[in-house]
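Lecture 7 notes: from sequence to structure.
We start with the chain below.
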Amino acid sequence: MEQLSTRIVVGTQTPVRNELVLIHGSVTDQDWEALRRAAAGDGEVLLDTEYGPWRFRITPGASPDAFHLVSVGQPGEH
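Predicted structure tokens for the same chain:
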């Protein structure tokens, strides 16, 4: 699992499933490379959110210039 350093504001939290799309430019180049490594590896990233650390899984997307993320559990659960 890769950990991103950029603070990600996810907005309203739902109890079941939260989804995000990150595009190049919305995170640092270093975090973009971490997303690429995670996608090639276990497919999971740890985001620094306004709710605390939160694990997300990268799901296949239609664009090579974006990463579609779906929450795994609740914030603070590793």
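Points to note: The CA atoms of residues 56 and 69 lie 6 Å apart. The radius of gyration is 11 Å.
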